[in-house]
Amino acid sequence: MANEELVARGYFSSGRFAGERFGAFEVFFIGGTSVTALKRVGVDITIPDAIDFPFSLYKAPKKPSAARPDRLYVRRTSEGLIPVAIGEDKAPTKLLDEKAVLRAAEQGLFSAAAIGARVAITSNGERFYYINVKASLLEQQIIYFDEKRDFGPAVLANILEGDAGVAKDPRPLAESIWQMIWQATKRV
Question: Which GO terms describe its molecular function (predicted)?
């Protein structure tokens, strides 16, 4: 049976669990829903017994299954709903000093590791921090992706593709479009 929050937010339509469109992804705003409840409704999650990380400021729950990310981003594939990122939202007055940023990053890391997502995003609505979950767990310290843009579907796609923070040269695209227009109209 589905969790009340998931039903109340309208994530079940025609008996199918579906989030809101977010580019090539789906997003669920689920701050009151545990990882266990998400697994029950069909999100492809393998919940670890523990998360091996030296949390210094965030008091992590004893069980990863108790994690409750504010947002979940998934990619719908033929295999099902694959978690790719989680989001942790903070008030605009938060994330103003290094300790607050680290505490939020550790919370995001815990939730992302519990759900099997590659990216954790923390934000106060003005600043966005993108945590590399795999590298952070491996290095035993918070590792950020080199991404400075405000969060959106293209930013998430770039991070997952591995080209976050890479400046794109628009010239090849502009030239190919110009050539198509010129061939179609034969005008300058």
Answer: methyltransferase activity
